[in-house]
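User: My collaborator sent over this chain with a note saying "see what the structure looks like." That's all I know about it. Can you take a look?
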Amino acid sequence: MSDLTKAISIATSAHKNQVDKGGKPYIEHPLRVMKQMMSDAARIVAVLHDVIEDSDYSLDDLVTAGLGVNEH
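Assistant: Without extra context I'll predict from the sequence alone. Here is the result:
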């Protein structure tokens, strides 16, 4: 499974049953932001940008899933 696929799966799980102010599924927002990005790394950041703030997921959970920061 690619990192982007993992990130989308985590975001979908994290935002399950959440809705935006208009009553639409919240996951639509990070997916819209993700589609505007040019690289896979930026897409991953975009789709996950509200996960830690708006769900029970932690940074450690994302690192455990293999989505940690790689320093080069």
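A starting point for your reply to your collaborator: The chain is about 55% helix and 0% strand.
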